[in-house]
């Protein structure tokens, strides 16, 4: 049995008062009444604000901080972040509508993702959003649609780098990928951009996600700058934007420690000094999703049954995989591990019980906690899944089994 524990920093994100978890200063039972139903997601705006302030403190001032909306597209969350970050990164036309509704300047919005539709490309051009080109086909489509609109579309080249971000939860660069244009093909693409009526902005180099090792992130950043310098030699104009990706992870599972960003910030100072010589016009962008919002969110569901099967205690809840696929272990995990989970209205309880928490779906995949020692719970108690602010609500199959959807609130 693995004795590793969830990092305490995760559980200390939300304070406890009188045995109740406090979310945005509100006791969990009262918040549940206010929301009017379980299950629901609650996001703490103060936590998001503090997180961005912490990042700014540890990263060089010159870094432009972008939010990758994919992590949590709730309009109220995106609106809150609009006042905290320097720009947004999009991965669909739907996200573009949410982003533009906040009033964020289109000049600070970029749109990545393979297979952009003609309609998405056309809207992005009309809005003035920068298209991070993922293929030669997109390049030609953008030029054709720009001509129709009598505008020069803003474009950047998303590069599939010739290296990868080591020890990442998800690798998105290096080797064959559906993302970006292979580094070796980029010079030809840059030449073509120069021939067409396109407004070249720069490069987008995203190598991976969910990384907890500063040395791996630093190494990828060093290689990213070096690659950008090499490619810039073939660029049709100066490089104005250099998006170096992100990949900052958060601890989800027992034994994982929070990412130390201090050494990343320190090394970036040197890298930016060199950048000032090599690409003086380029502003450097870091794009982050889960690091900004992941820890600010909890998923709350209610115990509807307590049953025992051959000695194993099950808490059955009204929430599960259909609302929170990632916590069930079915969103990219190879071996299922428990997210941090607690009984939110019994935080002071000393009586514990080892339980498995499952949802109401008729599938054995519907697990929220497997064999965890938690405060002894009964029907009506509130199960809290932490680290749920990113890739929760919007990354789950709400329609599976036709149960009602959860609510989302920003507190
Ligand atoms: C998904 C994605 C992100 C966000 O990743 P996080 O792990 O949430 O920080 C950023 N950039 C691109 C291009 C992405 O596809």
Please explain how this structure is put together.
Strand 2 and strand 3 form a beta hairpin. The protein is an alpha/beta fold and 411 residues long. The chain has 12 helices and 22 strands. Strands 4, 16, 17, 18, 19, 20, 21 and 22 form an 8-stranded mixed β-sheet that branches. Strands 5-6-7-8-9-12-14-15 form an 8-stranded parallel barrel, surrounded by 5 helices. It is elongated, with a radius of gyration of 23 Å. The protein has helices at residues 8-11, 28-35, 45-58, 75-82, 93-101, 118-127, 136-148, 186-195, 214-232, 262-278, 290-293, 325-328; strands at 16-17, 20-23, 26-27, 40-43, 64-68, 87-90, 109-111, 130-133, 154-160, 170-171, 181-182, 199-204, 208-209, 241-243, 283-288, 297-309, 312-317, 341-343, 352-358, 367-375, 382-385, 407-410. The model has no long low-confidence stretch (mean pLDDT 96). Helix 6 crosses helix 7 (136-148) and helix 9 runs parallel beside helix 10. The longest helix has 19 residues, at 214-232. Bound molecules: pyridoxal-5'-phosphate. Pyridoxal-5'-phosphate (PLP) binds at residues 68, 70-71, 89, 91, 112, 206, 209-210, 246, 287-291, 390.
